[in-house]
Amino acid sequence: MSMVKKRIYLLRHGQAMHNIDKNWPEKDPPLTDFGIQQSKSVSIPVTPDLVVCSPMKRTIQTMYAILPNIASKPNGEQIPIEIWPNLREATNAPHNNGSPRTEISAAYPLLDFTRCNAEWDYEENTDETAAQRATEVIEELMNRTETDILVVGHRVFFWYMVSGKRFVNCGEPFVSKLPPRTQDTHTLHSELRCYEIDDAGTMVEVSKS
Q1: Residues 124-138, buried b or exposed e (16+ Cβ, 10 A)?
Q2: Nearest-CA neighbor of 81 among 165, 152, 26?
Q3: Which InterPro entries match (predicted)?
Q4: For residue 30, with 0-12 CB atoms within 10 Å meaning exposed, 13-18 middle and 19 or more buried, which class applies?
Q5: Which domains does the chain have, with CATH numbers?
């Protein structure tokens, strides 16, 4: 009897304010109106057994924008939703600082932020710390019993998860096998990709049929 393969759907957030203003000075920018429309346009081929999401406003807004397409209750009553702080972005720009737990919990009271630090006081991102977080996320995904998991996150962190393949926004073509963060990729938003995790813990992209 063959085992059911676990599939991981990685979705980058829609266009956010810092994507149109490269000098955006504030923490935790929201989606633009266009980013919300991008996210609503995403078509997920299955109903996920689980949704895991970065604790940033732009990823949460993306998640809520697409959930009405796959469940009648977008607050997680039918599909479990978990907030994983390890999914936060992997660069140190001001816009990649998130909100304190009390603030983000007040904005999204139906979500559970207990895994997040009370303050946004996570260690500075380096290649080593980002790679370690990516490994921890993959290991946690491997240990879950669910078979179709939607992960809503960020371009650079996904780069670490999938060994150098960068994501774009909302279905635009995606650029793969780039040298480590030295090339300007001009990526867009809400790109959805499907992966399986092999026995070595490597994310292997599933070819589109």
Answers
A1: ebeeeebeebbeebb
A2: 152
A3: His_Pase_superF_clade-1 (IPR013078), His_PPase_superfam (IPR029033), PG/BPGM_mutase_AS (IPR001345), PGM_Phosphatase (IPR050275)
A4: middle
A5: 7-205 (3.40.50.1240)
Q: What pTM was computed for the model? A: 0.85
Count, residues in the chain: 209
> In terms of DSSP H, where are the helices of the chain?
17-20, 33-40, 57-66, 101-107, 127-143, 155-161
Give the tokens for residue 136. 């921890």
Taking the chain (209 residues) in runs of 10, the rounded mean pLDDT of each run is: 77 94 92 94 90 97 80 60 97 95 94 96 94 95 96 95 62 34 46 90 79
Cβ partners under 8 Å of residue 86, min gap 6: 133, 136, 137, 140
Sign of the alpha-carbon dihedral angle for 145, 143, 61, 77 = positive
Distance CA 192, CA 143 (A): 22
- ∠156-158-163 over CA atoms, to 5°? 100
Cα Dmax for the chain:
55
- The conformation of residue 77, written as its DSSP 8-state character, comes to T
Amino acid at position 104, single letter: I
